[in-house]
Amino acid sequence: MSSLSDADHVTWSALLAQTTEQLGDANEARWLCEHASGLDGAEFAAGLGEFATTAMVKSLEEMVRRRLAGEPLQYVMRRWAFRHLDVLIDERVLIPRPETEVLVDIALELVRGVEAPRIVDLGTGSGVIGLSLAGELYPKVGEVWLVDASAAALEVARANIAGIGRAGAVVRVAEGDWFAALPDALRGHVDMVVANPPYIAEGDDEVEESVVRWEPHVALYSGADGLDAIRRIVADAPSWLRGGGWLVLEMGYRQGDAATALFDSSWSSFAVKRDLAGRDRFVVAQYLAE
Q1: Model pTM above 0.70
Q2: Which of 40, 86, 155, 267 could form a disulfide with 285 if both were Cys (CB 3.0 to 4.6 A apart)?
């Protein structure tokens, strides 16, 4: 990319062409240029002939440098889209995946008929699951709890609450180890628990290099078989769910049998549901109560 020493004035059209050549990806180049310019979509297209400021060019150069070094695009931009949200994303949290949007669809379908549901999003990270549910159910939602053991992750989640507008009033944030973070008054009164917990087995060689290098390992790995976190959640959920409440978990695509085997006779309506690629990705169960 041309530096400011090469040209005193440079248009966004020229910067877009240079960025595309450097990255070899027209879409990524467009996203970075839009981000640096502060313009999106049609506004950016209309402004291609305008000159970029010195600060904008420097910002773009830095983002391109980081991207060429292998840093994920989402961390470079510090933002990403998830369903109807535009959220802050950085190295403190996992990058939201399209598969997790399906988890929200599943949860919405199950809970829409519940009056003022109380929902708990365990291991919330950036908050995208819980915040999507709060925003899309509002105003017919009671409370949505965002829970994480990482104070750094919860800083990101808190920053993203503003993105759901008035629905943010129903969101609560709790720091701690899974259910232990919740107030005791919620025991037996939660309508739904949702989670995208860590579920990768330690040493799994299928994990992409960029994921291993950049994303927080505490949110990725969960014991020798990847099921440690899911075991904890399934074992403790009955103390918190009301009778008829739902547990919806994301899991590894080969963990369906092992995950469903964790549920005892106090659960029913087991279902393993598939992701956008047609692979087993979610386990759903309803708590019957004893």
Answers
A1: yes
A2: 267
Cα separation of 166 and 126, whole Å?
19
Domain 93-287: which topology?
Answer: Rossmann fold (3.40.50)
| Dihedral angle over CA of 207, 212, 217, 219, nearest 10 | -50
- Strand-by-strand arrangement of the 241-250 sheet: 171-175, 143-148, 118-122, 190-195, 241-250, 280-287, 267-274
The closest alpha carbon to 147, from 180, 115, 170, 118, belongs to: 180
The ranges assigned to domains in the chain are 12-69, 93-287
Do residues 37 and 52 make contact, with C-beta atoms less than 8 angstroms apart?
A: yes
Residues 6 or more apart whose Cβ sits within 8 Å of residue 32: 19, 23, 60, 63, 64, 67, 73, 76, 77
Reported confidence tier of residue 8, pLDDT bands at 50, 70, 90: low
Q: Which residue has the tokens 């297209």?
A: 45
**For residue range 83-103, what is the model confidence (pLDDT) as tens digits?**
999 999 999 999 999 999 999
- Which phi and psi (to 5°) does residue 90 adopt? -150, -170
Please give the C-alpha separations between residue 268 and each of 217, 255, 289, in angstroms, as whole numbers. Answer: 33, 19, 10
Matching residue, tokens 């291609």: 48
